Amino acid sequence: AQSVAQPEDQVNVAEGNPLTVKCTYSVSGNPYLFWYVQYPNRGLQFLLKYITGDNLVKGSYGFEAEFNKSQTSFHLKKPSALVSDSALYFCAVRDNTGGFKTIFGAGTRLFVKA
Amino acid sequence: DTAVSQTPKYLVTQMGNDKSIKCEQNLGHDTMYWYKQDSKKFLKIMFSYNNKELIINETVPNRFSPKSPDKAHLNLHINSLELGDSAVYFCASSLQGQAYEQYFGPGTRLTVT
Q1: Cβ-based contacts of A8 with chain B (< 8 Å)
Q2: What is the spatial distance between Cα B41 and Cα B51, in angstroms, rounded to a whole number?
Q3: Tens digits of per-residue pLDDT, A10-28?
Q4: CB–CB of B92 and A90 under 8 A?
Q5: Which of B34, B22, B9 is nearest to B104 (CA)?
Q6: Residue B85: which of B22, B24, B18 has the closest Cα?
Q7: Which residue in A101, A48, A96, A4 sits closest to B101, CA to CA?
């Protein structure tokens, strides 16, 4: 069965420092991986995805993610954090069975301190 | 020009009542979803429709009944509301297929008292 793990409940980083939000996955077959961000009292917003090709994927708001097949990881990164990046981040994997159900990780709260 | 909209945004009701949440998308997508987000922010798929056909039906009490009158609309009706139904319900849409991201509505916060 497909699964996604986000090992950190919260990540704290100072503004201007690089940030990493971790995600590992378990799928059978090729993984289709996504990152979403949720600001308070809002719906989720799509950041980026890995489907195939280059292991480094670039997305919205300066975020990028690195796909590592051997480590089954898809960590979200940003070279320089902003206070406005503070939010809840979800990693997700798309099921490859009928219906293509999306399985979300538990979420990681990112707190960027000024 | 909201992409995915939901009504109402807030819903406060008593146990035993029946309520509906409506969702509309203007993105031209053919697949729509209902998710439930609990108080710990855990997000779980409930239902998915593709071209008005139900394609995902998770282990959800049959008090919950989705309906898709057309590709742009997906409604959720809940009978005999229980305290445990209190949550934020999100509608989402996407193109059909594994490779496509989902676009989420703003959510409906349901509180059952």
Answers
A1: none
A2: 29
A3: 999 999 999 999 999 998 8
A4: no
A5: B34
A6: B18
A7: A48
